[in-house]
Amino acid sequence: MRERVAIVVVGVLALLVIGLALVGGLTSVRLWGVHPPDWVYVLPLVNGAINLGTLILLVLAYRSIRQGDSVGHHRRMVGALVLTLLFLVSYLTYHFSGAQLRFRTTIQVVQWLYYGILFSHIVCAALVTPLVLFTFFFGWQGQWIRHRRLARIAYPLWVYTVATGILVSLFLLPVYLARF
Questions:
Q1: How far apart are CA 48 and CA 50, in angstroms?
Q2: What are the CA-CA distances from residue 159 to residues 39, 62, 63, 104 (Å)?
Q3: DSSP E strands: which ranges in the chain?
Q4: Model-level pTM greater than 0.85?
Q5: N or C: less crowded end of the chain, CB within 10 Å?
Q6: What CA–CA distances, in Å, run from 174 to 103, 105, 121?
Q7: In this predicted model, what pLDDT tens digit does every residue of 63-84 receive, in sequence order?
Q8: Mean pLDDT calculated for residue range 54-67
């Protein structure tokens, strides 16, 4: 019974995170009135740095478990989850601030590439959120068969999502630098 309640809680949390991210990304709700503070415009670069740290921890965690170091794997995965939560706070703060910087280029191929990467990033981020939470839950509970089975799907999707997040940040770097 407790496991079912925990699974429902994890599912609700995943839906809440996805919902907040979508509302923040698709609306113009503002936390600071008309003009957000200047520091808000640095957050997308911070997000790229957080994603890079997450990617490094994910790769190291995979290496750890392959070498039989379950303690190192556990620590690195918890670190990756903490960084992902920090990313989420930063992402929501930026998008709920009303800050609007758009990617612009005169090179059509680059624009198509950017929007293709961004679209796949958004879709994968929505898909990976519940997978990561359930994978963590099963690992935390010591349900190793379920944990491994789900991790085989969640891990590559999480790595792809984080890597494309870094690419999106790199594409937008000139836009953010031009702001300052």
A1: 5
A2: 28, 11, 13, 27
A3: none
A4: no
A5: N
A6: 9, 10, 20
A7: 999 999 999 999 999 999 999 9
A8: 97
The CATH class given to the 2-179 domain equals mainly alpha
The CA distances from residue 119 to 78, 113, 151, 168, 169, in Å, are 27, 10, 23, 10, 14
User: What is the distance of C-alpha 135 from the center of its chain?
Assistant: 15
Tokens of 89: 């706070």
The 10 Å CB-count burial string (b at 16+, else e) for 123-155 is ebbbbbbbbbbbbbbbbeeeeeeebeebbeebb
Sequence spans of domains, the chain? 2-179
Give the Cα separation of 114 and 137 in Å (integer): 34
Which position has the token pair 């999502």? 161
DSSP string, 72-107: HHHHHHHHHHHHHHHHHHHHHHHHHTT-------S-
Q: What share of the chain is helix, strand, coil (3-state, %, to 5)?
A: 85, 0, 15
Distance, CA of 180 to CA of 42 (rounded, Å): 9
